[in-house]
Each structure stands twice: as structure tokens, then as C-alpha cells.
Amino acid sequence: MTIRKGEAWGAPGPLPPEGLVVASDGEARRALLAARRAKEPFPVLGLIGGDLCRTLGGLGDPDRLRSEDAMTFTVDLGEVLLDGTLHLFVAHLVARRRLWLGRAAVAMNAAWLGDRNLGPKAHPGDGLLDISESELRPSELLAAGRRARSGTHVPHPRIRMRRVAAAQLSFDRPVPVRLDGAEVGSFRELSIRVEPDALTVVV
What we know:
By secondary structure, this protein is mainly beta.
């Protein structure tokens, strides 16, 4: 159930025997893609690495997943339509050019992108994606990158942030798009949406 303000989220519960342990956001994404292609339900994922795992307080300990200390969460899933093909992501979508030059956009389901807290208010169970769009000057990039490690890069007059269930992003020319760290091509039109409560994960 999508979390509401003031409500507890998650419950004690170990990874079931048929659950799948994944060590990165990319590995989680590939597992979900395989299930979707096979027209099977998504597996319950045990997270021992990646930005979604970190956001949920995971410790990267595979033994914990099947112990009484494990926590189970129902989380949202990001989806994006690119040139007529539907893709998914568990943690983040990044549309940017080299060195973040020019216009860039990020859709966060997790709070973290590597060592950068790009979604300081992002919550993977709230039915929303945290989307930021920027076009920073070269002189602003270094300072913004440093501040992003603590999530203090916003508010910023040249970074627009919004928390939405769906968004349409358009670029003047194709921009490389990465989903959970993997580049999937370059595109001009991105139709992004969230699928609430789509996935069960254990940390």
C-alpha cells in the first residue's frame, strides 16, 4: 500500500525461498525485465547492493535477508516510454550528456545516485517520482556536484524539482538515457510514469 504521512512502512519478514538476491539496481532491473518478457509475476527481490538498497537502509548482508532481522517493503517502479518501447527502472532514470553539460533531467525512485543524494525527498513507496530538470552553466557544475553529495544542491534557481506520478520530457535533440546505470540509447521524447506498489523487496 502506498505510504501515507504518519504511517509506518515496511514490516519484518525474510526473503521467501523463491526470492531472488540481486547486488545492484541494474541486476534488479534485468530480473524484472526477464519476468515481464516471460509474462510471469515479478519475483520478490532481496537487495544486497545498489541505490534502492541504500535508500531502504539495506546493509548489503545476504545472510540478513533470510533472518528475523530482514525487513520487507512494497515499493514503486518507474516506467518510461522511449520510441514506442516501454522500459522500467527500480531506482533512477538519468537523461544527460557528458559531464552533465547542457540540459539534463533525472527521475528518482530512490534517494541516491551513486554518492549523490539527488532525490533528498524521494520515497520509493509514495506513488511519486522526484523529477529534477537542470541546465547549469559550466561554472556551476562543480559546486552543484559537491553539494549533491549531501542533497543540498536544491533549492537552486537553475534546477526545477517536482514530485509527480507522471511527466513528459522533451529535448531539442536526442540525449543519452540511462536506467539504473545502464545506457539504453538516445531519445528526444520521454514519457515517464510510476507504477505504485509494483514490487516487493527485502533488505
